[in-house]
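User: I'm writing a tutorial on reading structure tokens. Could you give me a worked example: one chain, its sequence, then its tokens, then a sentence or two explaining what the tokens reveal?
Assistant: Sure. Here is the example chain.
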Amino acid sequence: MSDPTPQAVQDLSQLDEQTRTELEAAAFRRLLKHLDDNKDVQNIDLMILADFCRNCLSKWLMAAGEERGVSFDYDAAREHVYGMPYSEWKTHHQAKATPEQLAALEARQQGKKD
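And here are its predicted structure tokens:
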């Protein structure tokens, strides 16, 4: 059996909902793998640069579940995102925030208020 011919589209909205959902899910899984492969990137760095972190992804995952009638708790969502229990991740991979990081986060949060 041969592989199907790739579908060329100019706009992702041209894709059927199932295909688009599968692509978005694959991209999300790749993001989680990328974060897992780069545990040295701290949540505070993500918050400073992108205004989201692994915990945000966990909350978004929970919200997506709730929108679809699927319920799971925050710890289960974080374990999925972190690839291990959050307490274990913190012990092995979370560094204490530096004064510079805290100042940068505070500046970002102040900038959002202005």
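What the tokens reveal: The radius of gyration is 18 Å. Helices lie at 17-37, 43-50, 54-67, 74-82, 86-93, 99-113.
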